[in-house]
Amino acid sequence: MPRSRSPLQLVAPAASAKAPSASAAARGGGSSGNGNGISEGSATQRIAEAITTAIVERRLMPGTKLAEQQIADIFKVSRTLVRQALNQLSRDRLVTLEPARGAFVAQPSVDEARQVFEVRKMLEGAMIRQLCARITEGQVAELRAHLKAERAAVTRTDVPGRTRLLADFHVVLARMLGNEVLAQMLTDLLSRSSLISLMYQSSHSAEHSQAEHVAIVDALEKRDARAAVKLVEQHLGNVERNLRLNPRASDLALALQPVE
Fold first, then answer.
1. Are 219 and 231 in contact (CB under 8 A)?
2. Where are the beta strands (DSSP E) in the chain?
3. What residue ranges of the chain have pLDDT lower than 50?
4. Segment (H or E) for 144
5. What's the pLDDT at 57?
6. What is the assigned CATH class of domain 110-241?
7. What's the CA gap between 118 and 209, in Å, rounded?
8. Is 71:10 a contact under the CB 8 Å cutoff?
9. d(Cα 125, Cα 170) in Å, to the nearest integer?
10. pTM > 0.90: yes or no
11. Alpha-carbon separation of residue 115 from 78, 147, 189, 204, 245 (angstroms)
12. What is the DSSP letter of 94?
């Protein structure tokens, strides 16, 4: 797949913005200053979070070059701090670093896409089963409020907003178990899922996905673990099936035949 020629679309967030990447937030780094009253660790974290958010919200396409100097100018920091953020994202497999070429938004392979969804099914199936046994009325109300926000974003065709909210739904479920390690793992997997969707998504409907979330919450409210687990597995299976992971080999003669 050729590399994207789209320009870097990145906006430096406010220092107090909510972190989209739990893993990035957990790796704040050092505390030495950068001359602007912001610690080097905080600056590195902000850069990593901004890039992650841009990927999740589909503002950065797979293969986009992440020019160090351009990012440094956006955040008004040194290239050293930008390099630290890119190295961090490389460990998260959101960025690939190529010798003499620089950093690029990762382009997941078909095998990686399948593996990501396989891991998500294992994690989220166990997670939803546990949550069914302990979910509170207050947590159900929180999920209903999240579903309302999802629905509003889908209705007004807010693509970045609905993408973020539909992904966050799964992390909200994990945090309700009080297991931050699980929430961080799921956040990283969801970021990688966003890249996979950018590369392979076909006709998957955000509206259909949102309706599946409603059904999952309905099952949770009834404490029906069997139905909830089945619905989560079906939901992830539907998302995966709507990805073009099995492209047909091109028939050269057919491809070059003139269209009448």
1. yes
2. 65-66, 95-98, 102-105
3. 1-2, 4-6, 13-35, 203, 249-250
4. helix 137-155
5. 80
6. mainly alpha
7. 18
8. yes
9. 11
10. no
11. 36, 28, 10, 19, 12
12. S
Q: Tokens standing for 39? A: 């610690």
Residue 26, judged by CB atoms within 10 A of its CB (0-12, 13-18, 19+), counts as: middle
Q: 225-238: b or e for each residue (b if 16 or more CB lie within 10 Å)? A: bebbbbbbbebbee
Q: Quick one: pLDDT at residue 253?
A: 58
Per-residue model confidence (pLDDT) at position 245:
74
What ranges do the domains of the chain cover? 22-105, 110-241
Give the other-Cβ count within 10 Å of 174's Cβ: 24
Residue pointed to by tokens 């950093």: 103
Nearest alpha-carbon partner for 145 in 111, 113, 169: 169
Return the structure tokens found at 46: 């902000």
Interacting residues of 57 by C-beta distance below 8 A, sequence separation 6+: 159, 160, 163, 164
- Containing 111, the helix (H) or strand (E) segment is helix 110-134
CATH class of segment(s) 22-105: mainly alpha
